[in-house]
Design goal:
alpha+beta; two-stranded antiparallel ribbon; Arc Repressor Mutant, subunit A
Length: about 120
């Protein structure tokens, strides 16, 4: 996970986010919208990386280490009707080292897909 933010005074001037799960993507989107809005940052600069305030969210279990794909994303695509082959093409999980293959098959079976 790469997180970089460039500041000029109290204003956000640039950012780079790579990797991570849903929470990190959400934080990156929030920062991007702030950057595009051009408003001064309201508070401590380190808060840019803090999770959004609100109810505690359960941590998504990472299934594919190579592609950083969590269980929630896999289940959502399987429940949408993707086959295991289509899931691998869509999310990239199971396409690098293959060690998550048995877990992908188990999740597919849980969602009613034939492995």
């Amino acid at each position: 996970m790469l997180k970089r933010v460039a500041w000029r005074g109290d204003s956000l001037r640039g950012l780079a986010f790579a990797g991570g799960g849903h929470a990190e993507r959400e934080a990156g989107e929030r920062l991007l919208q702030w950057l595009l809005g051009g408003e001064p940052w309201p508070g401590a600069k380190l808060a840019a990386f803090a999770p959004r305030q609100g109810p505690e969210r359960k941590q998504d279990r990472l299934v594919c280490q190579c592609k950083q794909v969590g269980e929630a994303a896999i289940r959502a695509e399987l429940e949408r009707g993707l086959s295991l082959t289509a899931l691998k093409a869509e999310l990239g999980c199971g396409t690098v080292c293959g060690s998550c293959g048995p877990e992908l098959a188990r999740l597919a079976a849980d969602c009613g897909q034939l492995a």
